[in-house]
Amino acid sequence: MHTITLNHGLGGKQMHEFIKNSIMTKLQNGILEKMDDSAILKNLKTNRLALTTDSYVVSPLIFPGGDIGRLCVCGTVNDLTTSGAKPHALTLSFIIEEGMDLSVLDTIIDSIAQTAQEAQIQIVTGDTKVVEKGKGDKLFINTSGIGFIEDHVDISTYHTKDDDDILITGPIGNHEIAMMKARNLIDFDLTIESDVRPLNLPIENLLKQKVLLHSIKDPTRGGLASALYEIVEHSQVEITLFEKDIPIDNVVKSVCALVGFDPLYLANEGKFIITCPKKSSQDVIKAFGGVAQIIGKAKKSNHPKLLMQTESGGIRKIGMLETMQLPRIC
Amino acid sequence: MHTITLNHGLGGKQMHEFIKNSIMTKLQNGILEKMDDSAILKNLKTNRLALTTDSYVVSPLIFPGGDIGRLCVCGTVNDLTTSGAKPHALTLSFIIEEGMDLSVLDTIIDSIAQTAQEAQIQIVTGDTKVVEKGKGDKLFINTSGIGFIEDHVDISTYHTKDDDDILITGPIGNHEIAMMKARNLIDFDLTIESDVRPLNLPIENLLKQKVLLHSIKDPTRGGLASALYEIVEHSQVEITLFEKDIPIDNVVKSVCALVGFDPLYLANEGKFIITCPKKSSQDVIKAFGGVAQIIGKAKKSNHPKLLMQTESGGIRKIGMLETMQLPRIC
């Protein structure tokens, strides 16, 4: 087994060869190849730019439906997209634990390359650090990204308005339940995959068609409830969710029922909350292949809060995630 | 002692309170305060942008002359500056090990705020992840950054030209020797500090005065030799260093003599290699308060290489760093 050694992180010959042979060949593009300390991007077309960063510490590194490589590209592409930006370029920074199996790293870099292609984005600069055995957890990745915002676009968690529809682009909870299964934290015999994927292209299409969207938010850590809570606070609205309309796959429902998790707080990947005027909702549903659903309604309010109209007809108040359901899922 | 728990990294209430109280209050600015997933930067003034990323895994976190917070701001500001960009905004991403002392984290965030102020740059977006005890090393930080390049500026490690002067902006090796001392890897009784500092303002002044610079490179990991080697390869030049002119503090010289390290491979912070036409050299020296020095000469060559004219008058060839002198110094 070939493994990473401390020499791979020293800025010398071995590091340069490793980066050239194991990384550059897979992520090849004219900017990255320069291997300068900064990537230079030319001919910027707009005058508003989105900048985002995320570190990925998921364990295990490879899980049903994805891996840390797919996760880091999708996470950063999706974060840029939530601001209405068209993702333009990503950075890629590895913190590798000494002794890591090079073939696993190779698989992950392949996945990064494939996902970047799927999202139509380039990785333009990077960094590699190696820490001693026992001082890391095989691999942490940071991806930061920039995107450009067209002049007519104005999307923000501060922009949800009175009478807006609240949509989710697909069923919730799959990613976290898949991760729980992968970590052996639940031992039922079930088949579930993470649904991590880049969501920039459907949003770009909607914006190209001038479909009016107010807020986009990815309900990752903290789940649907915590993400909606941010929109509630930022936009000063009251949001009422319709419990019967929230899409949850049966396998996720069963696990939640059995172990007592609330699916509203389960982390998601590859899903967006979108708020928009009623007239936009059908276009959003179509853009996401018909699996998006209207799950609630916003109302201007002096007492912003998140409410749930339950299947039985009652109304209950929903808060932010208070304590742990499960760590290390993104 | 207050410590970080896994709950601090979950995207819920405790994480939001921690970020608001411990981070936002210190790094306050209008963009960061929005706490959206992407920062939006408006009114971009140029059409060339530099993008860079670096993860910092230094141990110990606090060392004579600096700390990981000062290091991460300076490192990314300086990387942007090497491309001729005026640093515009930074991202800040923490990977914190469960159990980390909150007061140490607090000191580091203070240092980030102070260094950002010194470099006149804003931190506009961030991320916080917490990993289980034993899966990290107290704190890793990633900073990514963007900067804008004025139209008249054209600096790159590919642009060193025939007859250029090679300058270094101060004595080499101090950072790595200070780190070795801090890690108890050398036990002589000596006083030495890291010289980590942001170098963007003197370069901005030179560029404002239209002083022509060809390449800027920060000789961090791999040291002066590895950094020059990159310029040699990228620009296809032969560089000859004048051993007698390379500034090295006595304390660094003594340690190197005693333990057999070559100062050319010691990591530096707060130092730039600058290559420029002769007519620019005196302006560079003045911009760095007189401590910069001409240490070599470039010559166009079909056989690019790095040479040293020794104090005794001989010529020897210098390669890249092959193996480890010391890990975890940046």
Gap between N and C termini of chain A: 28 Å
State the order of secondary-structure elements of chain A, H for helix, E for strand.
HEEEEHEHEEEHHEHEHEHEEE
Low-confidence stretches of chain A: none
Label the structural class of chain A. Answer: alpha+beta
Radius of gyration of chain A: 21 Å
CATH architecture designation of the largest domain in chain A: Alpha-Beta Complex
Overall number of structural domains of chain A: 2
What global shape of chain A is seen?
globular
Our count of helices of chain A gives 8
Mean pLDDT of chain A: 91
Which chains have the largest interface?
A: A-B, 86 and 86 residues
- Please bin the fraction of helical residues of chain A: 25-40%
Description:
Two copies of one chain form a homodimer. Chain A is about 30% helix and about 25% strand. By secondary structure, chain A is α+β, with helices and mostly antiparallel strands. Chain A folds into two domains: about 5-150, PurM-like, N-terminal domain (60s Ribosomal Protein L30, Chain: A, 2-Layer Sandwich), CATH 3.30.1330; about 165-320, PurM-like C-terminal domain (Phosphoribosyl-aminoimidazole Synthetase, Chain A, domain 2). In chain A, the strands form three sheets. The first copy, chain A, has a seven-stranded mixed β-sheet. In chain A, strands 2-7-5-6 form a four-stranded mixed β-sheet. In chain A, strands 3-4 form a two-stranded antiparallel sheet. In chain A, strand 13 and strand 14 form a beta hairpin. In chain A, helix 1 (about 15-25) packs parallel to helix 3 and helix 2 runs parallel beside helix 3. The longest helix of chain A is centred in the middle third of the chain and has 17 residues, at about 100-120. Chain A is globular, with a radius of gyration of 21 Å. Chain A starts with 12 loop residues before the first helix and ends in a 12-residue tail after the last strand. Strand 2 (about 50-55) of chain A pairs antiparallel with strand 1 of chain B.
